[in-house]
Amino acid sequence: MTNDILLFPSRKHSISFRVSSIFSSLSEEEDRAWSQRCHVRCLRAGETLVDHADESTDLFLLQSGEVRAVLRFGVGKEAIVGVFRRHEVMGELSAIDEMPRAASLTAVNDSVVTVIPSAVFHEIIALKPQVNKAVLQLLSLRMRQLNDRVSELSFLDTKHRLYNTLLRLSRIRMDGGGERVISPPIVHSELAEHIGSSRETVSREMARLMREALVERTSRAIILKDPGELSSRISRALQN
């Protein structure tokens, strides 16, 4: 099997900008006109969309799958700084300031991405004030998330950073009475990259959480049995 990049015209995938909250104010006609100037890229699990320091300036809209943003520090040292899911926008910083990429974007699983040329993006925000406002709100959200991560690294020890990451990556389980799930289950080495620790440390702490019946792991998901207790432990740690 080759690792060739797969490119398809956006119309073959019935792509719409308006699936993203950023572009929800576009009319159907505007959506159709601008999407025709974009293309779709299909990524296999583990494939890199853009690498750190790349000079590309495209904006990306994730149509399906999951993509993670990774910072690299020297040889072999990485930290996951974000995970993007269906209908989320990625790569907006380079699309705005035309500077090299601040992080790598890598597919967690098979994913489909709409590639929006920066010229198209700039045209949209120049002509559509609602989109411009939505982009500003997105940048504000990114800054708040960054502040949260800095606080986490500054004030929480390893195990509490793990609790926080489990909560952040999880979603409410629709049939679980307050439980939360991470599906598909994230491996311990990847959790370690999220919190700036080692796989061995994460494995020990996850085993302890399972003994306490706070976490359950299946072949399909990590289940947070008592998210409230994890949140309480984080709050107590911040107060000490």
From TrEMBL:
Q: Where is the Cyclic nucleotide-binding domain?
A: 22-125
One Gene Ontology CC term in the entry: cytosol
Look up the domain of life of the source: Bacteria
Please give the Gene Ontology molecular function terms for this protein. Answer: DNA binding; DNA-binding transcription factor activity
Q: List, alphabetically, the SUPFAM superfamilies matched.
A: cAMP-binding domain-like, Winged helix' DNA-binding domain
Q: Which InterPro entries match?
A: cNMP-bd_dom (IPR000595), cNMP-bd_dom_sf (IPR018490), Env_Response_Regulators (IPR050397), HTH_CRP (IPR012318), RmlC-like_jellyroll (IPR014710), WH-like_DNA-bd_sf (IPR036388), WH_DNA-bd_sf (IPR036390)
Q: HTH crp-type domain location, by residue?
A: 156-228
Q: What Pfam family does this protein match (any one)? A: HTH_Crp_2
Q: Which UniProt keywords apply?
A: DNA-binding, Transcription, Transcription regulation
Name of protein: Crp/Fnr family transcriptional regulator
